[in-house]
Amino acid sequence: MTQSDKYSNNFPPLLLGAENYDDWKFRIKIFLRRDACGCDAVENGIQVPMKDGKPKYLKEVSPEEVNSLNHNARAMNSLLNGMVATELRKISACITTKQIWDTIKVSHEGTSRIREVKLSMLMSDYKGLRLERDESVKDVQGRFLTLMNSICCTKTCLYYNKTKSN
Questions:
Q1: Residue 75: is its pLDDT beyond 80?
Q2: pTM, two decimal places
């Protein structure tokens, strides 16, 4: 893959692990927006058509259910193609895109309680932010912007999860 293909609309972004999770999450959401129903499969999940406690055979599935399954499959394919082997092992038991998304999210962001602790630590870092000896203003500005982005992302996740559970 060439450097110009690295961020192509044709290839999902690659999740390498914790070091690029935040960037990957941002990029994969944009990548999945190519298919509005694929985004819905990630955010809200789909219901696997069941009969007598088991998934229905394809010949028993309605056209609407087939359409929903197709959107789920495309979104799942995008997620899976954007993961390295270590990330794939975390989600090997998942059968829907939503399960994959939630598993990866908890793996990298933690539970709501962990995010609250993280926010508290980030706020402490913010209060203690100082220009270090031999540090340029540009460097401290970079640290400040990174810290502010982390605080905003963590607050947004906490707010979104609280409103979603209510």
A1: yes
A2: 0.63
CA dist 120 to 1, 50, 105, 113, 159, Å? 41, 44, 20, 11, 15
Q: How far is 134 from 125, CA to CA, in rounded Å?
A: 19
| Residue among 126, 130, 129 at smallest CA distance from 148 | 126
The whole-angstrom separation of Cα 12 and Cα 6 is 9
pLDDT in tens, 92-142: 888 888 999 989 988 888 777 777 888 888 889 989 999 888 989 999 999
Strand partners, 49: none
Q: Helix, strand, coil shares of the chain as percentages rounded to 5?
A: 65, 5, 30
Q: Could you tell me which residues come within 8 angstroms of residue 83 by beta carbon, excluding any fewer than 6 positions away?
A: 14, 15, 91, 104
Domain edges within the chain: 1-109, 110-166
* Degrees, nearest 5: CA angle 45-81-109: 60
- Please name which of 51, 66, 154 lies closest in space to residue 111, comparing C-alpha atoms: 154
